[in-house]
């Protein structure tokens, strides 16, 4: 199993929207590195759901329900989407400020590549964030 982090502006599509809808197409990604990360996702992989811009916190865990397929919002079939489903909300959101203070998370992609919208997370980072959120 692999672990990932996806970022969404809560005003655009919040964690609560994913919980309400039961699944969503994760589309609109137009960065090659993020697209490659979508392509590497496998069904069942776990995904940290991060609210960017206004909230800056991880709110829960989603699961890859459907592996990469052509993005329905793109004219070019090289752009990809995946389907995500909610798995579990965090009891306590894990904020960016909190992540920055944690020694064990200093190499997390969220801090190193802050503009990337889809990124891998190591199993150790995932487990540590899970403990912080629950």
Automatic annotation (TrEMBL):
Q: Which residues cross the membrane?
A: none
Give the top-rank taxon of the lineage listed in the UniProt record for this protein.
Bacteria
Per the database entry, which stretches of residues form a coiled coil? Answer: none
Database matches in Pfam families: EVE (PF01878)
- Which Gene3D superfamilies does UniProt cross-reference here? ph1033 like domains (3.10.590.10)
EVE domain sequence ranges = 2-132
Name the CDD domains on file. Answer: EVE
UniProt-listed SUPFAM superfamilies: PUA domain-like
Question: What's the protein called, per UniProt?
Answer: Putative RNA-binding protein with PUA-like domain
Instruction: Give the organism the record lists.
Output: Rufibacter quisquiliarum
């Amino acid at each position: 199993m692999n672990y990932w982090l996806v970022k969404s502006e809560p005003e655009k599509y919040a964690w609560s929207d994913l919980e309400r809808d039961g699944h969503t197409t994760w589309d609109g990604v137009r960065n090659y590195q993020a697209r490659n990360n979508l392509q590497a996702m496998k069904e069942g992989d776990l995904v940290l759901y991060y609210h960017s811009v206004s909230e800056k916190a991880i709110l829960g865990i989603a699961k890859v329900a459907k592996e990469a397929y052509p993005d329905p919002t793109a004219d070019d079939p090289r752009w990809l989407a995946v389907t995500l489903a909610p798995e579990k909300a965090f009891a306590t959101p894990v904020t960016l400020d909190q992540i920055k203070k944690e020694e064990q998370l200093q190499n997390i992609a969220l801090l190193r590549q802050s503009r990337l919208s889809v990124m891998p997370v190591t199993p150790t980072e995932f487990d540590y964030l899970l403990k912080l959120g629950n």
